[in-house]
Amino acid sequence: MLVQPHGTARDALTQIEKVLRLEERQGFRDASATVGVARFVGDRTARLLDASDGATRRLVQELDALLDGYTNLPLHERSSSIAEARTILASLMQQTPDDSPAPAVSRPSALPRANLTDTQAAAQPVRSVGNPASGNRSASSAKATPVRAAAKRPTARLSSLSDSVRLLPGVGEARAKLLEQIGIRTIRDLVRLYPRRHIDYSNVQKIGSLLFGHISTIQGTVQSIETSRTRTGKQLVDVVVDDGTGRIHAAFFNPWIERQLRPGVPVSLSGRIEQMRGNLCLSNPEWEVLDQGTLNTGRMIPVYPLTKGLHQKTLRALVRYALDGTARMIEDYLPDELRRQEGVIGLAEATEWIHFPDGDTPAEAQRRLEAARGRLAFDEFLVLQLGLLQRKLDWRSQPGTRIEIDSASLQRFTLSLPFAMTGAQERALRELLGDMGSPRPMTRLLQGDVGSGKTIVAALAALAAIRAGFQVALMAPTELLAEQHSRGLRRVFDAGPDDLRPRLAMLTGSVGGTERQMIYEGAADGTLDFIIGTQALIQGGLEFRRLGLAIIDEQHRFGVEQRATLRGKGESPDLLVMTATPIPRTLALTLHGDLDVSTLDELPPGRQPIETYWASEAKREGAYGFVREQVMVGRQAFIVFPLVEESEAIDARAAVAEHERLSAEVFPDLRLGLLHGRMKPSEKDAVMLSFRDHEIDILVSTSVVEVGIDVANATVMLIDGAERFGLSQLHQFRGRVGRGSEKSYCILLSSDPGIESKQRLQAMVDSQDGFKLAQIDLDLRGPGDFLGKRQSGLPEMELASFADVRDLERARMAAERVLAEDPRLESAKHALLKGRVDAFWQTAVADVS
Fold first, then answer.
1. pLDDT (tens digit, 9 = 90+) per residue, 414-470?
2. Are 216 and 245 contacting, i.e. CB atoms less than 8 angstroms apart?
3. Four-way CATH pick for 339-607+803-849: 3.40.50.300, 3.30.465.10, 3.40.50.450, 2.170.120.20
4. Whole-angstrom Cα distance, residue 436 to residue 434?
5. d(CA 29, CA 689)
6. What are phi and psi of 47, to 5 degrees?
7. Are 243 and 273 in contact (CB under 8 A)?
8. Is 349 exposed, middle or buried (0-12, 13-18, 19+ CB in 10 A)?
9. At 792, phi and psi to the nearest 5?
10. Which of 142, 188, 144 shows the shortest CA–CA distance to 163?
11. Torsion angles phi and psi, residue 534, rounded to 5
């Protein structure tokens, strides 16, 4: 039943409440009011706006916006909207006295607009709708002063940062679920929802001085509101605002705006100055009523991550409520002395300014925003480094075994090799042997470019441990890589003196029966010196007599439990992890902050550079022809694509479809294989084995081939869609060829690269240095290629950027100072900092080392 609006504001709220309850009982059929729920509520909220201000007005607006599109909602969303609306309504009824009037609204006719055709509008000069009395004032003379009205916000009754966001005004069950979708459950989550960026609406101008194309804020009074339909059927609300120097149209495509504003209301509008029908206008600008304070206009406004159903205005208001209610609860976990040393602002200030960096001038607001970012980014770097360094301290605090280095035997072995070690190899070996000879367990990363000679360094370290009476285990992520390591190490040891040759065995999932049992027995009684394998090494049946050195290859492929289990096979054995992914030194401090790093940044003499070319789409057929030429003289080739299957969202060739096309149309007479990440491990191994044994001429693959076995006969790497890969990945792909004595080639096929992509592709042509390319990649693209799924052991950081080398090193040094004084963060002044470090690292899902 439709109740005619009359009486007090309380009466209007009661009428709404009755209709919402009836709607709930009737199963959300939009039949509880003859005009529909949206129209019924909208008529009353329009009148309630006249009788409300400040916090009450904001809640009325939220109620109206929530139910505005009720008729078009699916049933499950209608129930959520009604539930949330009743929550808002309850807050309103608490704030509205029984005798509050609810006057009717008299809407004057809208001001006439020019009735121009599109052709006529285009011919008109672009101008402001000026006030004749104001004349044509210049922009400088008409510069406006921002209105900073005191906001009349409702106060949330909060007792701690751990309180639920449901305690905030306007957050009912439905909105709480939306917030949870972006990770917001508590007030702490909300104040740490850092903006992705800010829009600068602090340029407050007089209407008479506005310039086309500029982002500006105007503040004036609503003169008229007119609703019409566009030619496409959209509802257009045209609001005319006057500030005494001129008038401007603001075009909105949200029909509920008509019920939120009324003539005579002072408003602030922010947006880009555009043109409509020959006049300057604002299209869908940010807006707010001036007597409620300015959260969305006339200032630097935050832009937050959203989900469907949440809006920027809503989040800004909620963050503002949360900050107002907890300003005195934000405790600074950095000791005063450390803050002074590092020159950073307090945490409460930083938390306020990262959201709303107000200032008397735009420059001051910008400085405050930068100060807030600087403080919070430093915190992220600091707690990250504290966690990493504590891991190193914990590992080194365990009782280790000193390995006596037989220098004479190592020198005799080295001199017997058919090649001379590089300076980088000798330096890395000295670092490893120094660690092994100390009573503390070694935790060291050996990183080197493809072909830099990591195998010989690892072999000599293993030999040192074996000569001292210890055993060695090397774990690789796949059976093929384990087999490759086994062959390579056997070649190295076979080249040395017979009396220094260790007893090796390989243990993988395919080894079973009597052979597996013999390996178990040899490991347990010490007759086997060196066991190379896959995760079979960490299965329960294998026990070592005296494991002294554990080596992990491509360490990012293993999880925390796997690494811990291998360590547990001995009593605090030395740990050496290896990676073929070059990482810039500054980033290595973060990715491997709990490890000492040895770097092989020098290639052995005589290694042929891989000729690299960048080809456009027009040269595709020529690239295919070159691949065919190489195959016809007995070589093999890789063709790499960025996707497994075709995607409508991404315009890139897909490996599966391209394998079919290449097999049928381009290379029908050749043997093609397919490799991608959705295949089972056994299927991948079978394909790579066939390629290694030359049963496949061309291997079509996705990026899964980035880490693979050596195929000496492969001489061509063709990367299709090369612009879609980072430099580090491109360099890893290139490293799959050039493993033999024949000249090798890398072709980067790119259809339409942008400026940044062209820089990357040209860098690949110009350089073979993996570390140089990694640094360029870091500068151009940030740390994404290094920190993706391969480094899931690191907590996510919101503001810190690994490209900020100076900030990273500064935080590293600060962490070292703190832990030198208080290794466990046990002192009273570090109690809050310890809590922050623990909370930060709870998000880690794997052990970085």
1. 998 888 899 999 999 999 999 999 988 888 989 888 778 888 999 999 999 999 999
2. no
3. 3.40.50.300
4. 6
5. 64
6. -80, -35
7. no
8. middle
9. -70, -5
10. 188
11. -105, -150
